4-hydroxyphenylpyruvate dioxygenase-like protein
Amino acid sequence: MAAPARRLCHIAFHVPAGLPLARDLQRLFGFQPLAVREADGWRQLALRSGDAVFLVNEGAGPAEPLYGLDPHHAVPSATNLCFDVADAGAAARALAALGCSVPVPPVSMRDEQGAATYAVISSPAGNLSLTLLDRTGFRGPFLPGFRPVPSAPGPGWVSHVDHLTLACTPSSSPKLMRWFHDCLGFHHLPLSPGEDPELGLEVAAESGPGGLRLTALRAPAGSAVPTLVLAESLLGVTSRQDQVEQFLARNGGPGLQHVGLYTPNIMKATEGVVGAGGQLLTPPEAYYQQPGKEKQILAAGLEPSLLARQGVLLDGDRGKFLLQVFTKSLFAEDTFFLELIQRQGATGFGQGNIRALWQSMQEQAARVQEA
């Protein structure tokens, strides 16, 4: 591995001036302002909930925004992952030696709270770039060049980022998996027993051709980097785009489709999001009527009718359960959504939940296409 990632520092978004993403993250999901920078045509606002940090780059300018790139992208989207590395300069040189493009060579930033060095590399995942950051010499709340923003404690719905899901073109997952392995030290994480890394987990459509392939990657041992999930459509002949194909079309290619945010109490978090006006995906009606589902929910110490009312999915057995709920897109272009996830001993993603998400997103994609 050329540049082992030690920790996810933040996820960056690029949106047009006036788009209310930062406001929605605060109002709907409990994120709080952390630090801000306004210069060169950009307003960059960092927001935090627990250890999850989002950087909203709003506007456009003649220079690149600090700690990232201006992707000159036609639609708002999540465009950058920032990883902590031991030596940003050495990491950039090592990746360049592997053939990676380094559009922003190592840059050192300093203010009264210390210094940090970063470089930006291009990834093979569409408009997604990666920032390599070394801020061991910085003692401020975010990064040099940003002004701290005082804020009250948030509701605590989100504690950290659980996983990142990239929407990929068909048959591209093996190539992406090798790139993340060689460049950042990620390894295959099986989602089912005996899974072939080249094939991943295949989720067939309930009726007709097509389906979904998922390949999960874990970061180097000892790091604090979320699981990376590669999602691609299974080839099939169908007249209607599935949700991955729809993302690729609307985003103009591969990219970060959604972020899974860990919550210590998904029922409380979901109630708060809905109460604030957030919109969640509705699971298939038959999901909660599956044989054994009610017993499974009760075994987890939860009320089936409450889960159904709030749209929370549950999977697992033997005292290990996984709970998930998914938002509708945060952008009108349907290029990014969030997931809230709670783990009660479970470490995977739950094949039953994956199939239910697939179906509910297919139904949502069909409604979007018909609109």
About this structure: The mean pLDDT is 90. Residues 7-148 form a domain with the 2,3-Dihydroxybiphenyl 1,2-Dioxygenase; domain 1 fold (CATH 3.10.180.10). The first strand starts at residue 7 and ends at 15.
